[in-house]
Amino acid sequence: MIVRELLLAIGVSLKTSGLAALVASLLAVPAALYLAGRDFRGKRAILLINQTWMAAPTVVIGLFFYFLLSRSGPLGRFGLLYSQAAMTIGQIFLILPLITGFSYTALRQVDRRARLTALALGASRRQASWVVLREAKFALLVAVLAGFARAVSEVGIAMMLGGNIRNVTRNITTAIALETAKGEFTNGVILGAILLVITLGINILVQVGFRSKD
Amino acid sequence: MRQTAYSLRDVRYVYPDSPAGFALDLAALRVESGEILALVGPNGAGKTTLLMILAFLIKPAQGRLEFFDETAWADERRTLLARRQSVLVTHHPYLFKGTIFDNIAFGLKVRGVPEPQWRSRARRALDLVELGGWDAKTAAGLSAGQAQRAALARAIALEPKALLLDEPTANIEAGLALRIEAVIREISRESGATVVFSSHNFSQASRLADGILYLSEGKRVPFSHENCFSGTAGSDGRQGWIEPRPGARIVFPGRAGGHVTCVINPADIELFGADEPGAVADGPNVFGGRVTRLETTEADSALVRVSGDLTFRVTLPLREVESRGISLSRRVLIKFKPEDVEIIGSEPPEKPHV
């Protein structure tokens, strides 16, 4: 494998999974805030579905979106199959329940008095919600990072929706699968190590960045 | 002209998931601007609920509530404005993560107070509660009493029109409690803030407040009858006493003359089974009786009514009820220290507050 190809694959991994983690967080954290803040009929059912969805195999989600995005499928006219966009969409749906679940647990652990105190001190409802998020920021950060880690390390969706096209949708994990299939085990191991180092680096950077601001 | 800070009429609030169906029900209440009002009553009387209503944190199910002649619940904007003028310090205050200064700055920030003022206002408020120089301390390491004072400073710094305090000295040692009382008086005098606070402590309430509102089971009552006794005082020069019934003598320290009314906090009374090994039948303020009522009031405590020559209400932890085998119609002894007898006046205390 040439260095340029390798760098492109790393870029694809970071871009698709980073975007997926960002979009999924923007959906999941508000949803978790909503769920954590009140009790209503059907909430248990929602949590149960979320829990089940968390265990969905990547290939099942890949299959589902393959059907939706393929040319004859309901969303086929957008021509998204075998693109980075398709990979990102699939990964969003993969990690959405994970980030929701982790964030829900994180926000439930915030003292119930936090919100009340914010309101008592004159915060608007929105500002009070921010306070609750801020009180849980480390746990929420872990939720988002876990989501990113799951997205960057999965292979089923990237393979089925991205198609492992060289220099276009080939990412680290699909590259590993290919190299292994070719019998190039050394390349596979090197790529695997690179993946782990990247994840480690991101975790360190984000955690350090967050702590220094405090 | 003195304005009316709060005006309540037929205000009712029912807790949605209260199994006992607790409701606060107030026909009328007026609190004048600059007044200090005490809410007195046993646990579960509705003091906290009323404070939450006055702080616009819960909305009454029915009735009229006006704050400086405004109907604060009319729309969201007005509710927010009213809430920013009436700041509640809760019984077990919550401090946000970060420093004490961060905690104080929060309320100033949401009110749009210019940032250069934050430091000086925080410093002034912390000085008042004797936490001067504590700005940079993190909230996590504080004791309960320190946290309560920090929370008080956090509210004071906002200079609200109404300061609402739920048991402001509950976690604070006695000497400092007096200092906090002085702070409350100072704030009321200097800024003209209206102060409403709840207290278990009759003497604190009568020391500090212009008026007292007695609450019991969510309703205003003329006077709280819990362990309240009166009689003509006698004294031997060292300590005084009253005998509400012949032979039943309640002893208190110091001298008092005339017709004395006193109360004993149900939590200050010790309870023994009459046949329990440690039970001492002599000494001052020991009374015998039978348990005529036994009920759980809160999660971990029980209210026991002991009827003998005099009737007392005693609260004690639920586990002690079990471990000591306290049960209905059991013979028991109760005992309390002379220092725990609070003299609330030689006349019946304040007239019911209107």
Euclidean distance between termini CA atoms of chain B: 19 Å
Gyration radius from CA atoms of chain B, angstroms: 22 Å
Sheet/helix structural class of chain A: mainly alpha
Number of strands of chain A: 0
**Uncertain regions spanning at least 5 consecutive residues of chain B:** 347-354
Residue runs with pLDDT of under 50 for 5 or more positions of chain A: none
> What is the total number of structural domains of chain B?
2
**Major β-sheet strand ordering of chain B:** 6-7-8-3-9-10
Helix content of chain B: 10-25%
Give the proportion of residues in helices of chain A. over 70%
In words, what does this structure look like?
The complex is a heterodimer of chains A (214) and B (354). Chain A is mainly α and 214 residues long. Chain A is built from 10 helices and no strands. In chain A, helix 4 runs antiparallel to helix 7 (137-153) and helix 7 (137-153) packs antiparallel against helix 10 (185-213). The radius of gyration of chain B is 22 Å and the shape is globular. Chain B is an alpha+beta fold and 354 residues long. The model of chain B is unreliable at 347-354 (pLDDT under 50). Chain B folds into 2 domains: 4-220, 3-Layer(aba) Sandwich (Rossmann fold); 228-345, RNA polymerase II/Efflux pump adaptor protein, barrel-sandwich hybrid domain (OB fold (Dihydrolipoamide Acetyltransferase, E2P), Beta Barrel), CATH 2.40.50. The chains are: A mainly alpha (214), B alpha+beta (354). Chains A and B meet through helix 5 and helix 6 of A and helix 2, strand 6 and helix 3 of B.
